[in-house]
Amino acid sequence: MPRQRETRASPRAARRRGRNLDVGSVGQIHASLAVLRAYRGEPYEDELAAALAGAPRDDPQARGGIEDLDAGIALAEGRYDDADRHGWVALAEFPGSMTPSAQASIGRAGLWSRRADRARRARESLEGHPGRVTAALRRELTAGIAALEGREDEAVDAFLEAGRAYGEMGVAFHRALCQISLVATMGPGRRETGVATTDARKTLADLRAARFTERLDEVRGAVPARPAAPHVRDEAAEQASIGG
Predict the structure, then answer these.
(1) Closest to 111 measured CA to CA, from 223, 238, 212, 241
(2) First-last CA distance in the chain
(3) Residue 211 near residue 77, CB atoms below 8 Å
(4) How do residues 120-157 score in pLDDT, each as one tens digit?
(5) Which of 73, 80, 4 has the alpha carbon at shortest distance from 35?
(6) What pLDDT digit, counting tens, does each position of 184-222 carry?
(7) What is the DSSP string of 124-149?
(8) pTM for this entry
(9) Angstrom distance (rounded) from CA 182 to CA 3
(10) Contact by Cβ (8 Å): 64, 72
(11) Where are the domains of the chain?
């Protein structure tokens, strides 16, 4: 029989590449797989255990990375207190590498559980940090805090800015999570809530991020109904920014 050509995607090639990786790199691969499977609602415990086994416990960056991973998984699973706790431990271990990922988990956990104080702490810890994603996240948290404090028109403007920024960077996943933040903090009577819900649901379905679809449905049912305030806005422009 002719020898089968080995491709980069073949199991044999994968095993060969694996032998050439150090323990830390293998741990990072398992960590990424654990997060992906957790977000999809698939079993991830074996991958998480392998990631822990490959993380050098004397390295603060590795310890911070594991805590950051735990914060992200806790957010996906709706364990908001755990997301807050793991996120702050991650930042205490190695703030430079954990920003803005840890603050994203902390801040969104605060918004989705309607804890403005927690979201505010996360936003404050982003001050002085550069980067477009960081700036968009800061705007998202500002929007959610404004909504929770009853300043909904101000919140809409900030959510629009954050959504546009994520869209311009091509980070559809973060844009969908920003839309969950909008849904979690604004009343169901707002037109923007319906637009954000529809768009986020489609994006999360495309990404197979089932856990975050669950969070979307959860926060949508948890927000108390408020009568829609009359206002005149450019609805076509807002729908384009919020919904795609």
Answers:
(1) 223
(2) 53
(3) yes
(4) 999 999 999 999 999 999 999 999 999 999 999 999 99
(5) 73
(6) 999 788 899 999 999 999 999 999 999 999 999 999 986
(7) HHTTT---HHHHHHHHHHHHHHHHHT
(8) 0.81
(9) 56
(10) no
(11) 130-223+232-244
